[in-house]
Structures are given as C-alpha cells and as structure tokens.
Amino acid sequence: MAGDEQYERYRRALAGERLPAALVDLDALDANVDRLVAPIRAAGKRLRVATKSLRCPELIDHVLERAGQTAIGLMTYSAAETAWLAERGARDLLLAYPTLRDADLVAAANRHATAAIAIDAAEHVEVLAAAAARAGATVPVVIDVDMSYRPLGRGPHLGVRRSPLRSADDVVALARAIAGRAGLRFHGVLGYEAQIAGLGDAAPAQRAQNAVVRAIKARSAPHVLALRRASVDAHAAAGLAPTIVNGGGTGSAAWSARDPALTEVTVGSGFLASGLFDDYRGLLLEPAAGFALEVVRRPAPDIYTCLGGGFVASGAPAPDRLPRPWLPAGFTLLGTEGAGEVQTPIRTRRDLALGDPVLFRHAKAGELAEHVREYLVIRGDRVVSRAATYRGLGHCFLG
Ligand SMILES: Cc1ncc(COP(=O)(O)O)c(C=O)c1O
Hints:
The protein has helices spanning 4-14, 26-42, 57-67, 79-88, 103-109, 122-135, 168-179, 194-197, 207-237, 253-257, 269-272; strands spanning 21-25, 46-50, 71-76, 92-95, 114-119, 139-144, 184-191, 244-247, 264-267, 289-300, 303-307, 324-327, 332-333, 343-347, 357-361, 374-379, 382-388. By secondary structure, it is an alpha/beta fold. The chain folds into two domains: 2-20 and 288-387, Beta Barrel (Lyase, Ornithine Decarboxylase, Chain A, domain 1); 27-268, Alanine racemase (TIM Barrel, Alpha-Beta Barrel), CATH 3.20.20. Strands 1, 10, 11, 12, 13, 14, 15, 16 and 17 form a nine-stranded mixed beta sheet that branches. It has an eight-stranded parallel β-barrel with strand order 2-3-4-5-6-7-8-9, surrounded by seven helices. It is globular and about 70 Å long.
C-alpha cells in the first residue's frame, strides 16, 4: 500500500522511543527548502525564514544553512524571542508583529543585531522611541501595509486583520513620523498578502469553496502588486527609500519572488509542509514533520485508541484544524471524538498491534513544537539527532 515503506522506516526509527513523539524527516525537509528557495534565488531575491513556523533553533539553523547566501535572516514573532535570538548570534531579524509592552526587548536586541519591528500606528512610534532612548539604541522600523483586497474599495474585507494602513500615502506619512524621531530609523515596508499566501485553494471535497478562493486570489493579485509598487515609489519620492520590502509566504513564495517591488520573501510553514499546505494548487511539498502516538486499545475490530493526540491548530475552528492522519495510510479520525485530550480513537481496516505507532501531521507547522520538548530528527530509518524545541529549551514566547 502507498506509504507502507515510509511507515516501516519511521516505525524502525521510533522503536524504543517514548510516544507521543514528534519527528522531522531531514530528506523531506531538505527537498522542501530546495523547492521553495529555488524561485527566490532565481529572481535574485532574499529569503527570510519565519521562525513561528519552526520554533526550534536547530531546525532554523538547518534551513538557513541549506538556503545559503539566499537567506537574509529571520522573521520573528515575539520581542522576547527576538532578543533571545539576537543574543544567540542571529544577525538580521524582523519582528513582524507589533508590541507595546515589550518594546524594551526589541530595543535591547539592537545591541547585538539588526532587530527591526513592524508597526502601523503612531502609538507604536511613541513607545518605540521611548524604548530606544532608554536602551541608547537605534531601532529600525518597518511599516506594515494592509494587503487585503476590498473589491471596489468597500465591501468584504478579503484578507487578514493586521494593519489599518491601506494606501501609499498612509504609509509615507508614518514613515516621515518615524524618520523624524531620535532613536528610530525607517527601515522598510512589510506587505503580507495573506489571502494569497495563506488560503488553500485545492481542498479535497470543497470544490465550490476552492473556486471562490481562486477567484479571490486572481482578483487580489494585481491589487497587491500595485500597492506594493506604489508604496515603494512613494517612499522613494519622499526621500525615504526602503532598505527592505518584505512579502510572501509559503503559499505564494514563487509568485512573490517575481514581484519587482519586493527585496525579500518570507517562508516558514512550507519547510515542514504542515497539513494545511496540502490544499494548495501547484504547491508540491513533502510532509516533513509529524507526531507519533501509541496504539493502546482496540475497542472494536476496526477501531484503535491511541494515547494523546489533541494537537489542534489555531484559527477559525473547522475540521481542517485537526491533526491529519498520515501513516500507515488509510486511517481516519472519528467524527464523534476528533483528536482527544488524552486519547484519540482512529478507524482503519489494517491490522495494528497494541504498542504500534500511528502518525499524524499537525495542520500548522510551528504549533506542534509547543506540544513537545524535542523533534526526533530522522534520516532514512534512524534518529540522527534530537532537536530541542523552544518549549524544550524552556521558552514560551507568546504565553
Ligand atoms: C508577516 C507574515 N509573513 C509571512 C507569513 C507566512 O508564513 P508561512 O510561510 O509560515 O505561511 C506569515 C504567516 O502568518 C506572516 O504573518
């Protein structure tokens, strides 16, 4: 059966391991890095690695090394994480989510590295300028532009809710405010097109919804390109040419790489190819991370109960947030129970023994690392290293 050889490999690797355990397949990870980086490199752009989608220093370092000169640095998700990574030796960081309470940590990170922060409001500027003064540092500031699509400028908001800045004029006005503040330096523009990068358009059994998502992507693409271009041009005209212009994500990496306005493209989830990224047209990635549960009971001939498993993803609650059955191929979750707090029943016609591992994939790439202390890093059928996650190192950066 499809996947049997892979299941047997992982089964051999996991023999003697305590379960639940999370694993990363290095060959698959390397293949994904090569595939995602190729169009960025070919377009002469740089890669920024989204740490939220890895949350494991060894894996972050591995991706950076494999991407070589194409990698410019890291996109981080919390100020404490940014400061910690800067102390650990990271040289180029962009915290892509604003903070007011932790502005001091961002300023402090600039003692060791270029640690920029994305912002979108006058309040952010005030707090950051005060933090920069306290730290005696200069903080590079990036302005986050809302890339969502609103047909006819009104109507439904197609995209995520991040920045209120929707025009090049809005952005330049804030850039001027930043440039006029001691301790702050205008560094660039962030325009993340979530409705293209982060929405699956090839989900099985959702043909109608896929068609709608494809239409949204096709219509919003010209808007994204035009707004990013206009922002860059308006800054240049104001004498504030951006050092970096960041956009893209796993689901749009190849497309974003061809946007002349961007200097760099962010990718994170695609390296591990978490479950939600199965549902993108034309995105060919190999599942590179998962978690194994132990089969502990057989309450019916075709039902097995596994220990643990309730690793449900963030986002709007829906079945696609559940762990995806992976190996051995062909098992399903039970609609009545899903992935449970302590036990997860599965249905399969295969004959499994009590104690066997059953593998799932998390819907999102980074969140699995919040449930485990380490990834078992596998090559072939062997565990070649144990990579501590942020959690395993004692960090809980957004909690
Ligand atoms: C600012 C920004 N850029 C890029 C991404 C894409 O990350 P990934 O490749 O993990 O989907 C995200 C994801 O939320 C993001 O917030």
